[in-house]
């Protein structure tokens, strides 16, 4: 039985509708916002009871300020206490996976959530969500869209940020949810009528105007009103006579803090000491921890706990104790004298708590404690940076404020802080602080490490020119270790490749390989080899590209550790695709993705999506390629990996042009331009070529040629586009020829012929040369030969283009009809309409699918798996696609079918597809 929630009838009615929807099988997210003490927690409590009444499992937890110090604790803490218990979360019981291996726990959570939601709808409630830890916030951003088709409802409560608390991961998550358009409920102040009703409930009797007037002085804040009235009751200043409560006396508490203090002063001395001692703990605590802080034996605390329960402390869902509200804890904490506060923090730092929480207590325990905090965070910086770089950086920033400006260790502290800020993608802060350190006289190794952190952050953000500047500045230092030199050269090689400085990039990659092996920094050697593979690919040395990628993969498999975390199979897959080894490329990408998922390497996800998109594009599966690219773009933006967003946007533009959706292509181009305005760079074959194709498709071929002016000039030295898309050579010839530029048309042919000569084992390169030469010379024989080679390697889009051009030159209706069949199957609607016009007839449509004809073949496969009861993770494994791609397919399926619930889709599959689901 819960107490009546006054003044919130409309909000309760709204949440009731949401929960009815969830009970019927719909997922989604809802956010409750409002000032501290406004009643968000009470509303969430009511929502939990309403959910339970509807048979919905409830996993609830209040986030605490120091949750940020314990990766994944907010989310696992909620699921660990799911009621009724779910077998899917049994692995969370009695352990703290978030502390042992948080990244692996994160991967397992999604599977557990899908399994639990398959048994019954689930409501996940996070109160005070602004205090969520970084990894939980990241997980939620992944899980909300990933579980959108399942009956999982997320319910968050949070308050606006205060000026002194910074931009927490929780606040960032709430902004992301707001931008994503999630449903929100804002709680405002209670009106006078509601305050009067609340007063009656708290006092337990009718009240007169003296009580209502005093309660109104709390300005409609229910928590402050309740605390004030309780304090008045305890002090005897609010009395009930003849069933009516009334205020007596003039010496009344004037604020919430005063009301809490008044209430605390009514307790015994030992109980007051208990509350003041544990007020330094900003997260739930155990009896043993309370005993340590108070100097009592655990058994001696039981009567004291009984004395302070309800009004001050409550049972936490994890089995420990917590303050009824953090505002109450803060009010008590503020009564502690400075010296006592520091002493209690020193004692709290000895408790077995997460490293960053211990560091927080050390930081608050005086100057010597601040030094201990710095030592702890610096010693664990690399591990912490994987899961909570922002929280660690905040501790270091506060330590800098507390440290003596003349401390000789300050420059090194700044360097470590810069690296943590960079790892947290807080680039502007990192650069500003790094400038201070660089002018403070660092030793060479420390300065090089600082510059490496800045360079890696810039590379992640697509700021390649700045990346090279930082690397060069570091490499000018004398006496830095081989390992650091290797890391700098590896990052520099990749940035230079994106800037088109290929010879320098190859040299840096080679030095990273050599220095890394000599210095035992095998991760740098692997990354350097990957850079060399990129360079060779850009230069059209396709065999060298494959050799470097294979060498990187072999070294990573042999060395393991950080070397394996570089995931060189990304570049091995890329090299295999351009050499038409599609089956092996698919196996490599599939294996690499599994390794990446197991290790929690989220940075690699957009790259896997990009090369899977490239493979699907080469095989003429445009609809699947588009979904894969969109999924990759979502992941890239979620991680602020702007450099990786560019090639994905370029692929989306090219696919949209082929499908005839020029408006979508323009939207993607606008996105590219926004990133470019921020300094993000991309190689020309990724985005410049796509923009030119869009211009040409709009009929502005002269503008397309003008855009490609430098492209024709550099094509012989950088023929990567011709390797990626062999039909592009002929398209370049056509654009130049049709705009009256025969020299450039001839240059494109020569570049294709040179690529073929340098790669005699590549049938696609030979086909590209024959196709480009055939278009320039208007030679149907060469075009037919090119078509046969494209048929041999399995590139249907290039084959269709060559067949169409051959048909234009008189090779007959059969070439048109085959081209039409190919582009129709691929979903290249723009080419399909053009070929239909040339044939002078409309193609006979393929027979409609008897099962869910609204869906594409790829979507239908996903729907059939849903009909079998498969989870998204199982579907991804069965169909050999990523879970993000499954999510994207399901969003499209729901939109096409006009449904919102997974159970509706399963029902439709059974009705329309029958035995296909078994």
- The shape is globular
Mean pLDDT: 87
Lateral strand order in the biggest sheet? 2-3-4-1-5
Low-confidence stretches: none
Oligomerization state of this entry?
single chain
Question: What's the total number of strands?
Answer: 10
Total domain count? 6
Question: Which architecture of the largest domain per CATH?
Answer: Alpha Horseshoe
Share in helix: 55-70%
**Which structural class best describes the helix and strand composition?**
mainly alpha
Question: How would you portray this structure in words?
Answer:
This is Regulatory protein, luxR family. InterPro entries: AAA_16, P-loop_NTPase, Sig_transdc_resp-reg_C-effctor, TPR-like_helical_dom_sf, Tscrpt_reg_LuxR_C, WH-like_DNA-bd_sf. Pfam families: AAA_16, GerE. This protein has 918 residues and is mainly alpha-helical. It folds into 6 domains: 9-186, P-loop containing nucleotide triphosphate hydrolases (Rossmann fold); 192-260; 267-336, Winged helix-like DNA-binding domain superfamily/Winged helix DNA-binding domain (Arc Repressor Mutant, subunit A, Orthogonal Bundle), CATH 1.10.10; 481-600, Alpha Horseshoe (Serine Threonine Protein Phosphatase 5, Tetratricopeptide repeat), CATH 1.25.40.10; 612-839, Serine Threonine Protein Phosphatase 5, Tetratricopeptide repeat (Alpha Horseshoe), CATH 1.25.40; 857-917, Winged helix-like DNA-binding domain superfamily/Winged helix DNA-binding domain (Arc Repressor Mutant, subunit A). The protein is 67% helix and 5% strand. The protein is built from 50 helices and 10 strands. The strands form 3 sheets. The chain has a 5-stranded parallel β-sheet, sandwiched between helices. A hairpin with a 5-residue loop joins strand 9 (313-315) and strand 10. Helix 26 runs antiparallel to helix 27 and helix 47 packs across helix 49 (883-897). The radius of gyration is 32 Å and the shape is globular. The two termini are 45 Å apart. 54% of the residues are buried. The model has no long low-confidence stretch (mean pLDDT 87).
